[in-house]
Write a structure and sequence with these properties.
By secondary structure, the protein is α/β, with parallel strands linked by helices. Helices cover 32% and strands 19% of the residues. The N terminus is likely disordered. Catalyzes the methylthiolation of an aspartic acid residue of ribosomal protein uS12.
Length: 459
């Protein structure tokens, strides 16, 4: 298994047995069929799980937050890395042992023979975002028994996130051909959702008192470029303008640094969308980027970063990188560390390279040993931590807006505009926080900083 920390692993970041469903699942009525859900993988998979559960709830199914209370369990799998596949197989095995009636879906579901070869007793296997097939499998295993006078669907559907924020998936698939990635093989080419459908979903979420919309896809900047007849060259710009009018925080994830990103940044400076860009740079050395089959313009990227920050001084930049990619030399790795010194990104994550079945990078020569990958990962994270600590220390004495995530007896856990849920840091308020509520946006004066978190007091 990888040594990457769980909060930086896309295949572990949202692993749960529907632990957030209790509020959305009223007491089970007599005779009501009930389904459980194990959701593994990235936020895009989490959205798939929410859609499946919302459809089932609309058909009268109850939602169970544990194995014992479920007539069957759906396991939404991840297949991003071989270690993620192993974890998915473990989750399927656990559900089979605890419940016995298991339906498998998600990215690993694209390899049905692989799953049934290990777990032949699963009831059905479907691939990613195959909602109708999942519903058909549930109907076959546990026939629906709706009561239209009792079964009421929450206004925002079933959510696996806290009520005050929600992921907004705007497209499926990806047109990139990165050698280390098999997502295009599992989820297909880019398919953008109609803008009206995205905006209507966003409006309904805000009407249901969602305070923060997290825009996700495999390639957010490419949204709408698959349309033959599109209203503008880069439809993400029009979508961002419209989302910025809804009155909620709007956070952009998985934004490739295409030239038109320059036009997104002024919207951030004006306050329409959050000054936050999540950009997967992956590496900085041009030869490594070429071996990855990614754009190899790290120097120009530094120029772009400088231009973005000039247009929006409050901009927070998050990215993830891969160390130990096949053929990576010590000199190439040192180039990455030097690039980090120049780029001074605000939020930095790192993966150790792993082979994944079907990826073209498996066939590259000169694979890096596990010991060297671990050593480089530790050096990378030491650098990232030092940058983060200095960045946060500079915020002491400033005033920032923060959204409240959790209120407990000893403190309120919040996030600034520069912190996405589950992957970034927190801002803690430990005095005068008793009257705060999740989703509330407050002004805070920062009075202490750590390596990844801030502490402050209400203004």
């Amino acid at each position: 298994m990888s040594q990457n920390p769980p909060n930086l692993r896309p295949d572990l970041a949202n692993a749960r047995l529907s632990r957030d469903l209790d509020a959305a699942a009223p007491d089970r009525r007599a005779g009501q069929p009930t389904i459980g859900m194990v959701s593994l993988g990235c936020p895009k998979a989490l959205v798939d799980s929410e859609r499946i559960l919302t459809r089932l709830r609309a058909e009268g199914y109850g939602i169970s937050s544990d194995y014992d209370g479920a007539d069957a369990v759906i396991v939404n799998t991840c297949g991003f890395l071989d270690s993620a596949k192993a974890e998915s197989l473990d989750a399927i095995g656990e559900a089979l042992q605890a419940n016995g009636r298991v339906i498998v879906t998600g990215c690993l579901g694209a390899e049905a023979d692989y799953i049934t070869g290990v777990h032949p007793k699963v009831l059905a296997v479907t691939g990613p975002h195959q909602y109708e097939q999942v519903l058909d499998a549930v109907h076959a295993a546990v026939p629906p028994s709706p009561d239209p006078f009792i079964d009421l669907l929450p206004a925002r559907g079933i959510s696996l996130t806290p009520r005050h924020y929600s992921y907004l998936k705007i497209s499926e698939g990806c047109n990139h051909k990165c050698k280390f990635c098999i997502i295009p093989d599992m989820r297909g080419r880019l398919q953008s959702r109609p803008m009206k459908a995205v905006l209507r979903e966003a409006e309904k979420l805000v009407e249901a008192r969602v305070s923060e919309l997290l825009v996700i896809s495999q390639d957010t900047s490419a949204y709408g470029t698959d349309w033959a007849d599109r209203p503008e060259k880069a439809p993400i710009l029009g979508l961002a303008r419209e989302l910025g009018q809804l009155g909620a925080w709007v956070r952009m994830h998985y934004v490739y640094p295409y030239p038109h990103v320059r036009e997104l940044v002024p919207m951030m400076a004006e306050g329409g969308i959050l000054p936050y860009l999540d950009i997967p740079f992956q590496h900085a050395h041009p030869d490594v980027l070429k071996r990855m089959a990614r754009p190899a313009a790290a120097a120009r990227t530094l120029d772009e970063i400088a231009a973005w920050r000039a247009a929006c001084p409050d901009l927070t930049l998050r990215s993830t990188f891969i160390v130990g990619y096949p053929g990576e030399t010590e000199a190439e790795f040192q180039t990455l560390l030097d690039w980090l010194d120049e780029a001074q990104l605000d939020r930095i994550g790192c993966f150790q390279y792993e082979n994944v079945a079907g990826a073209r990078s498996n066939a590259l020569p000169d694979h890096v040993s596990a010991e060297v990958k671990q050593e480089r990962w530790e050096r990378f994270m030491e650098k990232a931590q030092a940058i983060s600590e200095a960045k946060l220390e500079a915020k002491v004495g400033t005033r920032v807006e923060a959204i409240v995530d959790l209120v407990e007896d000893d403190a309120a856990t919040c996030r600034t505009k520069g912190d996405a849920p589950e992957i970034d840091g927190h801002l803690y308020i430990d005095e005068g926080h008793e009257g705060l509520t999740p989703g509330q946006i407050v002004m805070v004066e920062v009075d202490e900083a750590g390596e990844y978190d801030l502490w402050g007091r209400l203004v």
